[in-house]
């Protein structure tokens, strides 16, 4: 390691004194102007991680659902999954080291993690469409280069595409070609075949309006469009030509406001969906004939997918175990339906794809979705081999069901001061400040079929309050009462929350 070169280049990406950031729910996230040093250092860290794992590592420059002024960075581990927790700690130490200490902290990490510095390193980089992303991804490249790592800059990419590229490269192309073309071919082939097998007739099933949150989803869906145009006609809205990223549109807006995004005119029964800023969330929605808005969020997507998979397994007579993983944000009725009607075991983890992904790996088929629209289905290697074998061996209807499952495998890109509030029990119970949990319990008792919890966001400087009850009015009223309790007991600043 050339410590002199590191010191010299680091000074060009100097850390503002005293700035402290945490590797949060999905990497580092804050205002873009505070991130230059973090990006440079994550370039360095990606090289160490690559040397240690002898694999390609991914770096994604994005702040996903956050406002356009924010940015962020997340590292992608060798099998396309989120960075291992022990390395999140290294990332936090390195990002927060004062300028003069940084080379020493870097050395400490490589000793602690037993990194062989002679090993080659390869890093792939992607970025979203934020105005700040291009310059920040150049800072990542500077970090990679100063440690003599090799890299490939994919430029504009969705987060799932970067996960895909990492996985392809680390399986020597077995999973697919590590190019946009390879990505489009793999997914569109599975989608086309599955659509044919699923036997859906009628034009209403073949068209979809897509709100692209004024982000990368628009560019990438356009590239994908001609691969799937026989099966699906897509109309792109909020494609970034005029509006601001995630502003009054996108999956987070639609989910939290329970209404269509700006710019989306909906007729009854038209099929619509929204991505978020880096296109790793999706929520669907439609208007019924009476003009009522219906949201198919992550909870409902998980339910639909698990019933579909259960039907196929029943058809082929195979008893692979399915498990569904949710977070505390899952609506209680979706959990009850999955457990009591569908008889599928449901598990609750902390917020963050990394937690759900980890749990879902315990099953033959692990379905995981956050209510906000992140999710996928994971098939264990053994389940995948068995399904492929059955698709060859079985006959007629059974063979068709096995073939559909085979396509489902390919369709899912499987790749697995608010801090005064601390929580436990998968974030459903408050530990500190004292008295807050008791106050929430008392409020919840006043409403039927109710549930509420609070937690500090890991991506924004806010406390999230969740409430559910037997009616919208009661849920809103409970949410307001809980927000007031947070304001009073956790040292709220400014005006108390308004109903
Ligand atoms: C990220 C994470 C998600 C999480 C969301 C909100 O999403 O990947 O797992 O649900 O942040 O997290 P928090 O409630 O801690 O702010 P995204 O789409 O912004 O990357």
TrEMBL record:
Residue span, Phosphoacetylglucosamine mutase AMG1 domain: 207-283, 297-415
Sequence positions that bind Mg(2+): 64, 276, 278, 280
Free-text cofactor note: Binds 1 Mg(2+) ion per subunit.
Keywords, comma-separated and alphabetical: Acetylation, Carbohydrate metabolism, Isomerase, Magnesium, Metal-binding, Phosphoprotein
Span of domain Alpha-D-phosphohexomutase alpha/beta/alpha: 51-97, 117-168
Top-level taxon in the UniProt lineage: Eukaryota
First-level EC class: isomerase
Pathway: Nucleotide-sugar biosynthesis; UDP-N-acetyl-alpha-D-glucosamine biosynthesis; N-acetyl-alpha-D-glucosamine 1-phosphate from alpha-D-glucosamine 6-phosphate (route I): step 2/2
Reaction(s) the record says it catalyses: N-acetyl-alpha-D-glucosamine 1-phosphate = N-acetyl-D-glucosamine 6-phosphate
EC number in record: 5.4.2.3
Binding-site residues, substrate: 370-372, 455-459, 464
Annotated Gene3D superfamilies: Alpha-D-Glucose-1,6-Bisphosphate, subunit A, domain 3, Alpha-D-phosphohexomutase, C-terminal domain
Family, similarity comment: Belongs to the phosphohexose mutase family.
Name this polypeptide is given: Phosphoacetylglucosamine mutase
Origin species: Canis lupus familiaris (Dog)
């Amino acid at each position: 390691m050339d410590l002199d070169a590191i010191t010299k280049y680091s000074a060009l990406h100097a850390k503002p004194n005293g700035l402290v950031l945490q590797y949060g729910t999905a990497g580092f996230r804050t205002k873009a102007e505070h991130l230059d040093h973090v990006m440079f250092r994550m370039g360095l860290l990606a090289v160490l991680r690559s040397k240690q794992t002898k694999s390609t590592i991914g770096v994604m420059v994005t702040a996903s659902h956050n406002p356009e002024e924010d940015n962020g960075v997340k590292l992608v581990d060798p099998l396309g999954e989120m960075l291992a927790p022990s390395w999140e700690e290294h990332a936090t130490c390195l990002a927060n080291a004062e300028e003069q200490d940084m080379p020493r902290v870097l050395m400490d990490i490589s000793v602690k993690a037993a990194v062989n510095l002679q090993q080659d390193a390869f890093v792939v980089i992607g970025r979203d469409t934020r105005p700040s992303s291009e310059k920040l991804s150049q800072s990542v490249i500077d970090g990679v280069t100063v440690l003599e790592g090799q890299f490939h800059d994919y430029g504009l990419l969705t987060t799932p595409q970067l996960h895909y590229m990492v996985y392809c490269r680390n399986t020597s192309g077995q999973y697919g070609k590590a190019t946009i073309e390879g990505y489009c071919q793999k997914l569109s082939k599975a989608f086309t075949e599955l659509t044919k097998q699923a036997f859906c007739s009628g034009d209403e099933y073949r068209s979809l309006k897509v709100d692209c949150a004024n982000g990368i989803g628009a560019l990438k869906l356009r590239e994908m469009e001609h691969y799937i145009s026989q099966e699906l006609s897509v109309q792109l809205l909020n494609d970034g030509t005029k509006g601001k990223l995630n502003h009054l549109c996108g999956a987070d807006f639609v989910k939290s406001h329970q209404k269509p995004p700006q710019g989306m005119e909906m007729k009854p029964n038209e099929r619509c969906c929204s991505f978020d800023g880096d296109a790793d969330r999706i929520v669907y929605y439609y208007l019924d004939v009476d003009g009522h808005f219906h949201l198919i969020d992550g909870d409902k997507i998980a339910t639909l997918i698990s019933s579909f998979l259960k039907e196929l397994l029943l058809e082929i007579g195979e008893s692979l175990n399915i498990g569904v993983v949710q977070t505390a944000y899952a609506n209680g009725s979706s959990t009850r339906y999955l457990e009591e009607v569908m008889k599928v075991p449901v598990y609750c983890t902390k917020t963050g794809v990394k937690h759900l992904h980890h749990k879902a790996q315990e099953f033959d088929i692990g379905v995981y979705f956050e209510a906000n629209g992140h999710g996928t289905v994971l098939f264990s290697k053994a389940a995948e081999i068995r399904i492929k074998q059955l698709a060859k061996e079985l006959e007629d209807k059974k063979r068709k069901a096995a073939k559909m499952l085979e396509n489902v495998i390919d369709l899912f890109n499987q790749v697995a001061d608010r801090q005064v509030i601390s929580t436990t029990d998968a974030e459903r119970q408050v530990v500190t400040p004292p008295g807050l949990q008791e106050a929430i319990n008392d409020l919840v008792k006043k409403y039927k079929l109710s549930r509420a919890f609070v937690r500090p966001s890991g991506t924004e400087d806010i406390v999230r309050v969740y409430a559910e009850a037997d009616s919208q009015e009661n849920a809103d009223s409970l949410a307001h009462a809980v927000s007031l309790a947070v304001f009073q007991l956790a040292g709220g600043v400014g005006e108390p929350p308004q109903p």
